[in-house]
Write a sequence for this structure.
């Protein structure tokens, strides 16, 4: 068994640590933020009092996709049980839709099941589960660099106070802010291969709570698009939920959404959304911007820049959070790492680095690319909305994706196809490859309005913000 140091006690780090500890590796999680979580059952304390300054999205909306829940149920059932025990909300992405749209519940719809909660509650539960599994979590320990064998094999981490922590393998789960590139170069390694760009979105978020313990009824999918903005409605734990208005960062005319009164005035213009904001707010309008799309490779042209270290989750690749895929991608990659450790000794460090890069590139990178592709198109569509023009990219895949949503408003089977893509349990190729799907999508959705759901035009939206 290996001695593994995991950097970061967020969702990716804790999930990875749990998987590896179940295989009897010695796992040490190193976390910069000093404060530990309250007991998992104290969900109110976790939300109100727990400070995680190293995670800028700690109190921003989260939603766990069915793909994540499938992996948790299969790989970490004790963590899933613990989430349910503290009030995490059960959600079925098809069952939550109005019956006239989805038809009766049918066998197989359980694939749309998930359980979700606010980020502090999720971390508190996973932290307790990791500790119970034998993971050592060292909080308040700032990593400042890497130790090596004198070449480019990483042998542990340096900390701001205290001795270095040796490791057979270092797993960087430091998230979007990971300093791994700088640490590797300071240790004498080449810089990793990175591609990055501003995702181009701004998120205006508010959390709510119900005295009844129930979230508002969903009248459409959790993510829905309108002229100039997208809306996201996310159930949480213990009768809480969140509402997000996502806009283009260059759309200065919509900056008024930062103000609560204007935010509510805008939400009121969307009939399928307005009732989600008719409750007690438990946050202000939190704004998140400057989010990058980034992918980092530690193997360049088949040659590792360093060995003894791998990246998992947002440290490896991160995208805009509007489709909620980050936690699922991290779990997928963590399972790849666990499986590789079952087959390959990390002491065979060069082989290990290459094989993990190959697995991540084959399995996870296509998911990242597809997410970025969708975001680029949506951002361009928002820019066209602001300019008063129609977005015509000439890409039939984009047109078919929009037609699939519109067709799903009238066809329960197509509604399930669209939901399976959103749930991260099927790819567009798999959905459109089913017999008869393309013909039905073209017939029912290709001539639909650009935004088929009722909501404000851009002129009406701007009037609401004036």
């Amino acid at each position: 068994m290996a001695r593994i140091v995991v950097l970061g006690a967020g969702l990716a780090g804790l999930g990875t640590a749990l998987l590896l500890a179940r295989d009897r590796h010695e796992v040490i999680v190193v976390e910069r933020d000093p404060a530990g979580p309250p007991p998992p059952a104290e969900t109110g304390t976790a939300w109100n009092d727990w400070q995680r300054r190293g995670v800028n999205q700690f109190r921003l909306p989260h939603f766990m996709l069915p793909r994540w829940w499938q992996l948790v149920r299969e790989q970490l059932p004790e963590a899933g049980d613990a989430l349910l025990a503290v009030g995490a909300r059960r959600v079925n992405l098809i069952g939550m839709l109005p019956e006239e749209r989805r038809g009766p519940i049918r066998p197989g719809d359980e694939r749309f099941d998930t359980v979700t909660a606010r980020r502090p509650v999720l971390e508190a539960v996973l932290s307790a589960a990791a500790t119970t599994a034998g993971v050592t979590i060292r909080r308040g320990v700032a990593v400042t660099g890497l130790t090596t064998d004198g070449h480019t094999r990483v042998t542990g981490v340096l900390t701001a106070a205290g001795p270095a922590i040796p490791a057979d393998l270092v797993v960087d789960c430091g998230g979007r802010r990971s300093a791994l590139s700088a640490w590797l170069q300071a240790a004498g390694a080449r810089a990793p291969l990175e591609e990055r760009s501003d995702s181009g979105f701004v998120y205006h978020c508010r959390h709510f709570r119900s005295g009844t313990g129930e979230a508002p009824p969903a009248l459409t999918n959790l993510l829905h698009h309108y002229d100039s903005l997208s809306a996201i409605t996310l159930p949480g734990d213990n009768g809480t939920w969140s509402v997000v208005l996502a806009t283009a960062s260059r759309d200065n005319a919509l900056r008024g959404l930062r103000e609560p009164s204007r935010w509510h005035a805008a939400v009121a213009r969307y009939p399928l959304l307005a009732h989600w904001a008719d409750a007690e707010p438990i946050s202000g309008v939190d704004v998140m911007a400057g989010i990058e799309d980034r992918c980092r490779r530690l193997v360049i042209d088949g040659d590792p820049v360093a060995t003894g270290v791998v990246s998992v989750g947002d440290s490896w690749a991160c995208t805009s959070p509007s489709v909620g895929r980050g936690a699922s991608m991290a779990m997928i990659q963590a399972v790849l790492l666990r499986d590789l450790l079952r087959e390959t000794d990390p002491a065979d460090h060069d082989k290990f680095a290459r094989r993990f890069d190959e697995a991540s590139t084959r399995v996870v990178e296509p998911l990242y690319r597809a997410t970025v592709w969708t975001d680029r198109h949506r951002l361009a569509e928002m820019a066209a909305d602001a300019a008063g023009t129609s977005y015509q990219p000439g890409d039939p895949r984009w047109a078919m994706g929009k037609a699939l949503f519109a067709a799903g408003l009238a066809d329960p089977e197509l509604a399930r196809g669209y939901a399976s893509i959103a749930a991260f349990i099927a790819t567009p190729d798999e959905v459109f490859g089913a017999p008869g799907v393309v013909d039905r999508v073209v017939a029912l959705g290709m001539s639909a309005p650009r935004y088929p759901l009722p909501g404000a035009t851009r002129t009406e939206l701007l009037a609401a913000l004036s």
